[in-house]
Specification:
The protein is mostly helical. The chain contains five helices and no strands. Helix 1 packs across helix 2, helix 2 packs antiparallel against helix 3 and helix 4 runs antiparallel to helix 5.
């Protein structure tokens, strides 16, 4: 799944812009004065991430056998559920202790660092970096 996403990012630079849009929207949420603007930013962030995920899923389905696609999608779904549960719980706990703005910023930065680490690991495994 990550290799298909890396290939798509290399071929289509505007996908990087969507990924950056997701990050910028979420990091801007604590800085806006209005709740309605914050909700619009969150909605925009999820639209950006859903487009990237849908295109990566399509790239996976188009380039691999049906058995491989099924295994990869099942694995991705399990990880997605686990990460969603853990991030929701940790966001609630952090928001109780530090406030909602700090929780969003800390978890967004943690997610960004985690994603960068995973992508670097896959790039190294693919021989793209040393």
């Amino acid at each position: 799944m990550f290799q298909a996403l890396l290939c798509a990012l290399r071929r289509h630079p505007w996908l990087r812009a969507l990924g950056c849009g997701f990050i910028l929207c979420y990091l801007s949420v604590p800085l806006v004065p209005s709740e309605s603007i914050a909700l619009l930013l969150i909605f925009s962030a999820h639209v950006c991430s859903n487009v990237v995920f849908a295109l990566a899923s399509y790239g996976l389905m188009a380039n691999f056998s049906q058995a491989q696609v099924g295994m990869a999608m099942a694995r991705a779904y399990r990880w997605q559920i686990l990460i969603s549960a853990a991030s929701t719980l940790s966001c609630g706990l952090l928001a109780d202790r530090l406030g909602a703005s700090a929780a969003i910023i800390l978890l967004s930065l943690f997610g960004l660092l985690l994603a960068a680490g995973v992508m670097a690991n896959y790039r190294r495994d693919a021989g793209l970096i040393e």
